[in-house]
Write a structure and sequence with these properties.
- It is built from nine helices and four strands, in the order H-H-H-H-H-H-H-H-H-E-E-E-E.
- With 282 residues, it is of the alpha+beta class.
- The protein has a four-stranded antiparallel sheet.
- Strand 3 and strand 4 form a beta hairpin.
- It is rod-shaped, with a radius of gyration of 49 Å.
């Protein structure tokens, strides 16, 4: 009975020795910690320690500082270090009960943010690859999707990626515009070239066929080679205006004098406009 009385007296004495300012600072710190206002919590726990140095105040201060540091690392995009510090905080006996719930919730949020960040980075790489391959429409779709991300936009590292995607959209748009203009120029140049060629062919078609051209047409018609001793010579115009071409072979009668005679192989007509070849003897 005496032991219980002594213990009760000791508790009462200790309670009486605890400054009111300490208790108020601790209560305010715990409330701030519960609201995830770690900066304010740190300030209150430091005030409490100034009033009275206790293990409780030290543990709460360490928990608040660790949470604040982890949040800062998380916002900077250092997900691994932030997660490591939080897990270390949970494993520590002195702080496990104080902050376990908040730390686990933050770890889960960091994991989700990291997964989203990795996915966004992969999309950015894909968009850049598409842009390098001049697939600007597809690249724009990818960048647009990333720039319109609405999750974790309060995290600077993720906000940075969405901003990069918006800037890449502008770059892809400008490159697409330049590419389209260049393509249009090439198409116009090609069309102009085709038009000029067609015009030239039309002009050539409208020009009268020369005797030499008619002779060449007949040679091609008869598949004559330059080595054959066959003459293809314009002779006269037909009544309808066609050229009459005489095809003959020169036969040497006297090798010593070179005298000989011509042996007609055929007479061919060539239409000046259509360039059609026909047998003039039929």
């Amino acid at each position: 009975m005496k032991k219980w009385i002594l213990l009760l007296l000791a508790v009462l004495i200790l309670s009486a020795c605890t400054p009111k300012a300490y208790t108020e600072s601790m209560d305010a710190g715990k409330a701030a910690l519960e609201k995830e206002n770690y900066t304010e919590a740190i300030d209150k726990f430091e005030n409490a320690l100034e009033e009275k140095e206790t293990n409780e105040a030290k543990n709460y201060l360490h928990a608040a500082e660790s949470m604040q540091e982890s949040v800062t690392l998380y916002h900077k995009g250092d997900f691994d270090t932030a997660t490591y510090k939080l897990k270390k905080l949970i494993r520590k006996k002195q702080t496990k009960k104080l902050i376990s719930k908040q730390a686990n919730a933050l770890i889960k949020e960091i994991q989700e943010a990291r997964a989203l960040s990795d996915s966004m980075k992969e999309r950015i790489i894909k968009g850049k690859t598409l842009m390098d391959q001049n697939q600007y429409d597809q690249a724009l779709d990818v960048f647009k999707e990333v720039s319109e991300t609405i999750q974790f936009t309060d995290i600077p590292s993720i906000e940075k990626i969405t901003k990069e995607a918006s800037e890449l959209m502008i770059e892809a748009t400008n490159k697409k515009k330049s590419s389209d203009e260049e393509k249009q120029k090439q198409e116009e140049a090609k069309q102009n070239e085709e038009d000029a060629k067609a015009k030239q062919e039309q002009e050539e078609a409208n020009q009268p066929l020369t005797h030499a051209q008619a002779e060449e047409i007949v040679k091609q018609h008869l598949n004559l080679s330059s080595g054959q001793n066959v003459k293809v010579v314009y002779d006269h115009d037909a009544d309808n205006g066609d050229y009459i071409i005489h095809v003959y072979e020169f036969v040497v009668d006297n090798p010593q004098t070179g005298e000989g005679h011509s042996s007609t192989l055929g007479w061919y007509g060539v239409n000046k406009k259509t360039k059609m070849v026909y047998d003039a003897m039929q």
